[in-house]
Amino acid sequence: MPVSVSVSIPTLLRPLTQDQKRIEIEGATVRELIERMDSQYPGIKERLLDGGEMHRFVNVYVNDNDIRFADNLGTALKDGDNVSILPAVAGG
Amino acid sequence: MDRFGVNLMTFPLAGCTLSGAFAHVPAAFAPAASAVFNQAGALGIGVVFQPGTCADGLDFRFEVPGLAPIAGRLLGWADGRPDGASELTVQAASGLMAVHGRASGGARPLGVDYVSTLAASLALQGTFAAAIGQLRGSGHTRVDVSLAGAATLAIGQYLAGATAPEGAERLLPGCTSPRERPPFTSADGVVFELETLDAEPWRRFWNGLGIPGELAGKGWSAFLLRYAKAVSPMPAELMEALSRLPYAVIAERCAEAGLSICPLRSLIERLEDDDLPLLLEHGPWHFTPGTSGLPPTTLGGRGDLPLSGLRVIESCRRIQGPLAGHLLALLGAEVIRIELPGGDPLRGMPPLVDGCSVRFDALNRHKQVCELDIKSARGRAELLELASQADVFLHNWAPGKAAELNLDHADLARVNPALIYAYAGGWGEDARLHAMPGTDFMVQAYSGVARQIARRSASAGGSLFTVLDVLGGVVAAQGVSVALLKRGLRGEAGRVDSSLLGAATLLCTTELLALRDGKAPVEPPVAGVYPTAAGLLAIECRDAAEVERLRYALDCPLDAEPALRDEQIVRCLASRDAQAWQSLLREFGLAASAVREDLSAVHEDGRIAPCLRTEAYTLVKSPWSFT
After folding, report:
1. Residue B8, pLDDT above cutoff 70
2. What residue numbers bound the domain in which A71 lies?
3. How far are the Cα atoms of B51, B131, B342 from residue B287, in angstroms, in the given order?
4. Of A57, A59, A65, the CB nearest to B214
5. pLDDT value of position B85
6. Which of A12, A59, A69 is the closest to B214 by Cβ?
7. What is the CATH classification number for the domain harbouring B295?
């Protein structure tokens, strides 16, 4: 059965998602999810990934857990998971 | 050496004088007065102590040979009201205590003369800018600043975040634990900061200590909140894991993981550092001469502001450098900000207004933007082209990066001999420190500032409010003004370096000088925040006469022992609310103010309101008023 998750889109990426704040999409891993999003909303992958890895200034959370502390783009998704994308910059 | 018998390389404003009744200012302005004359002396300005008194603030006069004298005035409140303004009461009313208090156990004094130091720098900078303006044909002869203006400038970003039309931050004093936040404490009692700008070293470090990834990730999210929101609610498990290990083991694990660590040092330890004597003598700036024999300053744009017609190229990220550029823009300069293609990622940090982070907007709204990649040959060529048409180039890149990119002082001076090259760094001259990220909290720890702040806080460390980024930004802009004035007066361009560590040293100058000379630093006898029947009240007495007046106003005996005296004060204050006490104590000529805990209401205070303007969010106006 395909895994469907809910993705919350940050304001700056909403022009790419027809202003939707939240989209429902399928994907068994975060990488798959991003690929699927990009086919529906072209351009989004480029904003999230940098050379095949997560962009340094973007954090992705699965149910409030930062994927960098799980399996990164390989982090597995379950049906009904909440995924959020947030801009992130360390340091002052 | 020149005819003044001083070295112009290290004393850039030799030949200028600053006069004022510095020894006779109201007690509340004594810290600002000593900051003004210490800084002037460090720049080679001849300081003249005049007789007489300033009744309600600090008045001084800056004289440059060949120019009309410039009057500087530093008042307390923004509405010019003379009563009750002091370091502590302005910290209280402006919201600064509230921001500091988010992670420090409630609204509390910072415990350092922060607003006074900031205001002194701004006051001097205003007079330098007015002098530059005169050289360029403007007629400014007077500049006014206030402690309130300095304090609101310091918290501009947080005010923006708290007053955004959507998603405004509601972070009240005491909203996070003062213990479960950085700094950390080891089993052998060493208090220390950790720092990294990347998630990976953080993940490796905690993984090595057996902390599950999910928990380490929660800690990373908390760690990222420090700079933007002045909170960092760390999972208790992380604090506990470190409290079970000796410092030496933690330091070893940090080295293995690529994480930086710095113990919180005292000012006594700081006194032993090799870089300190020079910073105490010459201030937080290092001037390096460049091309001399430049043609005299040409007339400028004749705008309303003293730096109108001057152009600044800014290649800075985060807070310190962008704030320096912001201040130069507020003085009238045209500031062109270099951003990566696609724009600075901080633009996207919520809360947003019109698609841009309000915090980012607060620091960058007056700048033009030029997107280019300085790592590409084409980007560098574009940058050199921009610099060839500019007066100032300002950057805050990591140590060594300018040389690596062939964008160092000599490279830029080649395309523009008249350029002022300014670097707003972290650690300054001591290259041994450059392996650690020179960020606000690391420098607070190393410099002794964190320990000074911790004495008055419920936490073990410094402030999560970016104390040094803000002061460092002001100091960097001030250095640029000095270099521009020197260029105008002597036809000599050059480089000016400043750092967060220099700013930290400036902030603690009085204490460091006292410790160096074997004296006990002078503390105000009363400087505290007390509960009342409703709301908190900040009270500051700078001398014995003021304590006596407080005793009379409260109509109760006050013990000489501070802890007992504070208990007595709290008992007395229980009978009225903070506003009522503020009015009553003002009648006795005392510095007392209700503490502003909610940033979204700061503008309701008439003493602060003139510093602010409400647009989509609450904006902080220029701290200077020129006439």
Report:
1. no
2. 4-87
3. 33, 19, 35
4. A65
5. 94
6. A69
7. 3.40.50.10540
Given a contact cutoff of 8 angstroms between Cβ atoms, the answer to whether B98 and B159 are in contact is no
Structural domain contains residue B529: no
Is residue B174 one of the residues assigned to a domain? no
Structural domain contains residue B575: no
User: For an interface test with A, which of B349, B465, B471 has the most A Cβ atoms less than 10 Å from its Cβ?
Assistant: B349
d(CA B185, CA B242): 7
B349 interface with A at CB cutoff 8 Å = yes
B533 pLDDT higher than 80 = yes
Type of residue numbered B478:
Q
Strands B618-620 and B612-614: antiparallel
Same domain, B211 and B332: no
B296 touches A at CB < 8 Å: no
How many folded domains does chain B comprise?
Answer: 3
* Domain C-terminal end among B223, B246, B263: B263
Alpha helices in B298-415 (DSSP H): 320-330, 358-364, 377-388, 401-404, 409-415
Tokens of B123: 């006051």
pLDDT tens digits along B172-210: 999 999 999 999 999 999 999 999 999 999 999 999 999
Helix, strand, coil percentages for chain A (3-state, nearest 5): 30, 30, 35
Single residue among B229, B263, B297 that ends a domain in this structure: B263
Q: Do A89 and B220 touch (CB under 8 A)?
A: no
The closest of B351, B341, B346, B388 to B364, measured between CA atoms, is: B346
Instruction: State the nearest Cα–Cα gap between B439 and chain A, in angstroms.
Output: 6
What's the number of domains chain A is made of? 1
CA–CA min distance B351, chain A (Å): 9
Which residue from A minimizes the CA distance to B472?
A: A92
Identify the pLDDT of residue B2.
Answer: 42
pTM: 0.96
In a domain, A92, yes or no: no
CATH label of the domain that carries residue A50 = 3.10.20.30
pLDDT digits (tens, 9 = 90+) for B349-386: 889 999 899 999 999 999 999 999 999 999 999 999 99
Q: Does the beta-carbon distance from B220 to A70 stay under 8 Å?
A: no
Give the amino acid at B411.
D
Tell me the C-alpha distance between B341 and B336, whole Å. Answer: 15
Residue in the structure block whose two tokens are 């709204």: B365
